[in-house]
From TrEMBL:
Residues 1-16 form the signal peptide. This is Uncharacterized protein. The keyword Signal applies. Pfam families: Ferritin_2 (PF13668). Keywords: Signal.
Length: 437
């Protein structure tokens, strides 16, 4: 029966071209397997455990179809912004299914150094929207506002309150299409919501075919974001109009804003690591791939994403989505608020401020060149739990007993090829250093 179902599934999949929006959903539980190799000790994977707990709470009784519908909203936002900015036009009607042209949509003023990369990103994003259609989403793209959206979003990153706008504060509105810097900052602001949000969905989709596809969305978005970070890094000292701050400073504000809107976890990161506690690279190292201390990318729940793109709007409307998101997953609130851990985020449903405020991020120190050997030693010390003084050596999430090893020595992993040591007495292992933890 299982084999029969699989063959039938493959046959349907292989002949399902062209797709018919609104069809093609698979029954729940297809191809589920169980694993008898465990139990596994995941007690050290606190970041991942919290992400999954929060995500399961967020999933409630939403179906795979609801998740695919949610993805239509965010892939329309990203894909339309990238396609308009790069090519000067939007999706064809098979992708929008009648959704309107976003407010403020136009071709961006991009240099030849940036344009080819953004073309690749835009075409990838169109593909992502196509995936949601082929997976059965029949929701039209929602109403989207690029002009108001980016002005409110960047305004919030500058902590503008009340009637204050970017125009009233800085003398001109923010134009996301104005030049390489403004466009890249805007694209990356959204890209990493896709990267983290899509990853967060992979463990929640009941159907593994859909989960596999959404893992592809997440890895693709992460790759795109890394290219964008690199392009921004190369322009990090350029002044951003109208803020009169550098690219690096403006992006640090965006990162702090996103982190303040996604609840307790400290996950969002700037172009340089300025928070030594929670990240795989030492302080002031370049940070093209934001990860936890294990080098694993982060996840966000749909509700966290909605809280970010609507700046904590309780009804899920405003900023980029003037009429809200289509489908059942359309509010920042709505999951079990009595469960423990991150499950309760956001407790009140409102904008949640956490560890990194825009005030704290304030002035960004200039990037220091990577200090090779020092950093390597810091990493070694932190992984083995030695010399933990809550600076570069303090990573991980156990803070109650500073100084004690956070990592056990239950396992080991090779993390790097040996670097030349400035200290002649420090032995360097051949063929990769094995760190015990
Ligand atoms: C839209 O889809 C229909 C059928 O699914 C197809 O015939 C048509 O060529 C598509 N249009 C475009 C512009 O891709
Ligand atoms: C489950 O779904 C139904 C129908 O959509 C809804 O009325 C109900 O409130 C949901 N229950 C929970 C706990 O989310
Ligand atoms: C915002 O502007 C409106 C009218 O333009 C005014 O009534 C209101 O008092 C202003 N609010 C603040 C906080 O300045
Ligand atoms: C396009 O961007 C370049 C480089 O930033 C700038 O010099 C030029 O003024 C911009 N053109 C327009 C029309 O905005
Ligand atoms: C921009 O900031 C610099 C200092 O960082 C300052 O010297 C300059 O006057 C500012 N320019 C404008 C137009 O405000
Ligand atoms: C919320 O979670 C708590 C703890 O896991 C559970 O006891 C309670 O039944 C849940 N409530 C709902 C409405 O699912
Ligand atoms: C934002 O501005 C308000 C006053 O308008 C101030 O009280 C608050 O501390 C500021 N927050 C940050 C994070 O800068
Ligand atoms: C940016 O400025 C720093 C000094 O603050 C300098 O070391 C670096 O070379 C500059 N990088 C670029 C790409 O302009
Ligand atoms: C923390 O430990 C590192 C490595 O031992 C050392 O270089 C640094 O000075 C220490 N910082 C503080 C504030 O103790
Ligand atoms: C799981 O690993 C943690 C940390 O290494 C250890 O303290 C704990 O005893 C382990 N649990 C089991 C059941 O092995
Ligand atoms: C492993 O951990 C145990 C208990 O924490 C400790 O006694 C032992 O020395 C450690 N072994 C190594 C190789 O670090
Ligand atoms: C490329 C680089 O950063 N090299 C540095 C490695 O570390 C030594 C000692 O701190 C420095 O002298 C090098 O400049």
């Amino acid at each position: 029966m299982f084999v029969g179902a699989l063959v039938a599934l493959l046959a349907v999949t292989a002949t399902a071209q062209p797709f018919l929006p609104g069809t093609g959903f698979l029954p729940l539980g297809n191809l589920r397997t169980t694993d008898s190799g465990g139990p596994y000790n995941i007690s050290l994977l606190t970041v991942q455990a919290n992400e999954i707990k929060g995500a399961l709470a967020a999933k409630k009784n939403f179906t795979d179809k609801d998740i695919i519908h949610f993805l239509t909203n965010v892939e329309c936002l990203e894909g339309l912004f990238d396609t308009w900015g790069t090519f000067g036009y939007g999706f064809n009607n098979n992708l929008t299914l009648g959704g309107p042209t976003p407010i403020g949509a136009r071709k961006a003023n991009l240099s030849d150094e940036v344009l080819p990369f953004m073309q690749e990103v835009a075409l990838n994003e169109q593909g992502h929207a196509l995936f949601t259609r082929q997976a059965g989403s029949d929701l039209p793209c929602p109403a989207i506002d690029f002009t108001g959206g980016f002005n409110k979003y960047f305004g919030a990153a500058y902590n503008l309150t009340g009637n204050e706008t970017i125009e009233s504060k800085f003398g001109a509105p923010f134009d996301p299409f104005a030049n390489d810097e403004n466009y890249l900052l805007s694209v990356l602001s959204l890209e990493e919501l896709g990267a983290t949000g899509n990853k967060g969905l992979t463990g929640l989709l009941t159907n593994p075919v859909l989960a596999n596809a959404v893992a592809g969305l997440a890895t693709s978005a992460t790759g795109q974001a890394t290219v964008q970070r690199m392009l921004l890094w190369q322009r990090r000292n350029n002044t951003v109009y109208p803020f009169n701050e550098t690219v690096q400073q403006v992006f640090a504000r965006i990162s702090a804003l996103r982190d303040s809107l996604d609840g307790p976890p400290v996950d969002d990161q700037g172009l340089v690591n300025t928070d030594s506690r929670t990240i795989a690279v030492p302080q002031y190292y370049v940070n093209m791939i934001p990860t936890d201390v294990r080098g694993l990318t982060f996840s966000r729940t749909p509700q966290q994403i909605i809280n970010i793109v609507t700046l904590g709007s309780l009804d899920g409307k405003g900023v980029f989505f003037p009429n809200g998101l289509g489908g059942a997953i359309n509010k920042p609130t709505g999951y079990n608020e009595t469960a423990s851990g991150l499950d309760s985020f956001p407790a009140s449903g409102a904008k949640v401020a956490t560890q990194l405020s825009t005030e704290q991020i304030g002035t960004i120190p200039g990037p220091k060149p990577p200090a090779n050997v020092t950093g390597e030693l810091d990493l070694t010390q932190s992984l083995t739990g030695g010399k933990d003084n809550e600076t570069a050596a303090t990573r991980g999430y156990v803070t109650e007993s500073p100084g004690s090893p956070y990592f056990s020595n239950a396992s080991q992993v090779a993390v790097a090829y040996p670097l030349k040591s400035s200290d002649a007495s420090t032995p360097v292992a051949a063929g990769g250093r094995r760190l015990f933890f």
